[in-house]
């Protein structure tokens, strides 16, 4: 496809403002030819004067310029052969000027096979939070691929089919979805700590095939009532996540469709997931209700982070223990023994995490060497250093990311360089965290110090130093 025949909605600025438009720009009535279906065919047609045609110039015929733009929504299941057929049939029958697809630029490039093999920026991946986005993305893609294999359909086949049909018919392809990384970051930031644990646990269980499975009737998965039921069920358990995954993107995609319809005289076929169909239709019926989407195209700013707080608490416990040992008058020889146990316990447990993740020997050695120090600094983590070392000797590339989606066994997954870097970082951090608590306990046991007595002596010594004793 020529680049001129592809349009990315995110490149269109400034944003179209529906709230400040003149009152007469929209028609509040739906034409008689409109038809809406909540449980019938997947295809629904929105024939409505969303935006009026441009006024004709003198001497021009008004037959064409007075025709309002027409938008046809096709709701699909992302792993359904039936959806692929309906997309092809709709585009072939309607011969649209524009085929809008539920894709962003990165997903489009990936689906077209335009992603070049390159080293993954591991430093960015290991930054706080980034590793979780990659992990969630990998697990979701892996689950969808397994489901698609069972159904005998390529993931995103209906989007590929829509793009190919648009190319064959000379239609323009419009990418209307929000950048997937922005969506993932907003999704993760909106979820609570418990919700994150539940989601990760559920995804990992699904990847490993743990738990019961449910037969899904692909003939009814695109039925509006079923999709609404599934969305509403998720909305009850994680309403903020649904707002990001569904509601925000409904508004974002509807906004891009309305902008594409500006001027009239256009026929647009929009291929979207069945879960988005009702929300987009609602906005198209009354474009004035589309909220501003400026907030939805940026990753959220970092707010209070419970994991940061937990890390600070862990460090405070470790430093506080050493401080109390010193203030309580413990001999230097005893302090040296206590520190030795601290070093060994932190190092061994962090290194054990790297070993379980099948890390490189140098990654294991790195985890052992830095664990004691990172436990005393909330701005550092043993896993970061171990992960960077792992990436140095087993550099992950985009090929590893692609292969990870195809992997079917846990053993093969552990051989994947990208997954191994993530696991080395995660398990080395976990080992170091456990080592901090265990190290404090062992130090007190080895030195024979009563914690309560140590605290009393430490407080008394501290007050004496301050002249308050």
Automatic annotation (TrEMBL):
Signal peptide limits: none
Skewed-composition ranges (Basic and acidic residues): 1-18, 51-67
InterPro entries to which the protein is assigned, alphabetical: TraB/PrgY/GumN_fam, TraB_bac, TraB_PrgY-like
Segments for region (Disordered): 1-67
Keywords carried by this UniProt record: Membrane, Transmembrane, Transmembrane helix
Bilayer-spanning residue ranges: 309-330, 336-357, 364-386, 418-444
PANTHER family noted in UniProt: PHEROMONE SHUTDOWN PROTEIN, TRAB DOMAIN-CONTAINING PROTEIN
Protein name: Pheromone shutdown-related protein TraB
